[in-house]
Design a protein that fits this description.
Length: 116
Amino acid sequence: MKKSYKLLALLIMIPLSQAILAEDQSMHKKHHPQKQQGMKMGMQGGMGSMDAKKMDQRMKKMQEHMLQMHDLSDKILAEKDPKRKQQLKDQQLQLMKAHHMQMMSKMQNMKMNMNK
């Protein structure tokens, strides 16, 4: 169950870190106006520029992922058969890996956009 809380904390921290990054970039623009010209913001497609409908869709997607993770955690804890328990753990691990790769890809895209 502790792993579920850690994952939940991670899923909450990612959007917060994006918001902090956007705020830092905004402060940088205010203090370095000469760099504004020709500078593209890397938050395109990020939460800072998202309209309410897209934000709602993103939150629903995050909620779906969290519910899948919690469901698998509950099944793992309740399972008595060691082989089935390992299958459920493997399934949960694959879900975690897929989510991690998706987030890393988004972060890499943000970095690339920031460097343009």
